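mind reviewing these C-alpha cells:
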Amino acid sequence: MDSLEDTLQRLRDTFRAGRTRPAEFRAAQLKGLSRFLRDNKQLLQEALAEDLHKSPFESEMSEISIGQGEIDKALRNLRAWMKDEKVSKNLATQLDSAFIRKEPFGLVLIIAPWNYPVNLTLVPLVGALAAGNCVVLKPSEISKGTEKVLAEVLPRYLDQSCFAVLLGGPEETGRLLEHRFDYIFFTGSPRVGRIVMTAAAKHLTPVTLELGGKNPCYVDNSCDPQTVANRVAFFRYFNAGQTCVAPDYVLCSPATRERLLPALQRAITRFFGEDPQRSPNLGRIISEKQFGRLQGLLGCGRVAIGGQSDEGDRYIAPTVLVDVKETEPVMQEEIFGPILPIVTVGSLDEAIEFINRREKPLALYAFSSSSRVVRRVLACTSSGGFCGNDGFMHMTLASLPFGGVGASGMGSYHGKFSFDTFSHHRACLLRPPGLEKIYSLRYPPYSPGKLRLLLVAMEDRGCSCTLL
C-alpha cells in the first residue's frame, strides 16, 4: 500500500502531466462512473439497507438515480461546458480576444457524509471529474457498508493514476487535512465544517462547505391541512429524517396546529401503517450515538404523535412534538431524525421575525393557498434554497444550484454548477503584438487629452474597467 504522501504525489504528478485535461479522458472517467452505478446497483442497495435500512425505492430515488442523472447531464454537456466563454469588450480591446477559460484546480479532496452516502459522494465527484481534476475521495466511516463498496469496487472503474479513495475516521481525516489540496469539497455538520475551513486556511485552499441547519416550514391558515400533512410528513420522515434539507420545524397558528395534528397522524398511518417499526419503508438511525442524541430530544416539549423508540433496532417512531420552547435542545440543534416540532406563532410577520433571528437555513418552505403569502416569505427571508407548497423538490432540478448561505454553507453544486465549482475561471485577454502607436496613448508623459481618450476607450456601457 502506498503511503498517504506517495498517493498524493502520484495524483499530483498525473495532473501536472496534463493527463486529465482532454475532454476524451474526462468523458471516459464519467462513463466508468456510470458503469459502476449500473453494474453494482444491487450491491449499493444492499449496503444502503445495511447502513440506514433504506428501502429499494428510497435508494433508487434519492441515491442511485440522482447520481446517474448527474453523470448523463455532464456527458451530454461536457464539451459545451469546457468551451472558452467569450465576454463583451470595450473600445480599447476591440482588436483583442477576451474570454474565460475553465481550468481544473488540480488535486481536490471530497469529504462525504453518511446520510446519503452514494448521492453525496458521487455527485460532487461527477463535477470534479468533468472539470478535469485529480480526486481524493474520503467516504464516511459511519456508513460502513457503503464505504466498503466505494473503497473496494469504485476504483476498478476509474483511472487510479488520478483517483484514490482514502479511509478512516476523524483522526485520519485530520491528518489528511494537514496536506495541501487545490480545492476541498466538504459535506457535513457546521462544527466539522469549521475544522475543515480552518485547515484549508493554512494553505489558502478554496472550499465548498455543504452544511446544514434548522430548516423552517411555515404553514398558512389558508392551507388544506391534509395536503400539507402528506407533503411535510413525506419529506420529514424520508430516510428517517436524516436529511439536511428536511423541514426541521413547523411554524403555524394555534388553530392551524390543531387541524394539522390529526392530518399528520393520518399521513403517518397511511405511509407506515399502525406499527411503523414493522414498515419496510421507514429507515433507521445510523448509529447508537445518533440514536442516543435523538432519544434525548424526545424529552423536549410534549409528544403529540409517536415518541416510541427501540435502541436495539435503532428505531425512533415518526414523532411530532408540540409546546416546545425556543430554548430547548430540539429548537437549538439540527434534529437529523424523525422528529418534527410544531411552534405556534400569531401571524405571518411573527413567523418571518422568528426565522430571521436565527441562522440562515439550508432550505426554507412555505405552504399557502395564496401566492402572495409564499412570495412574501421568499422576499423577506434568506436561505440556501426555497420551495413553496412542497418539500425539497427544488433539489431534483440540476438546473438549480444546491448550497447554503451563512451558517448553512458556502458554494453550490449540481449540474453545471458542479462543473463550475471545480473549475478555476481564468480571465484571458489575447492581444496582437503590433499596433504600438495606438496603445502608446496610455504611456507617460500623461496629458488631459490622453486621459479623455482612454476613459472613452475603456467604457463598456456600465462595466467599470481598471488599468493596473
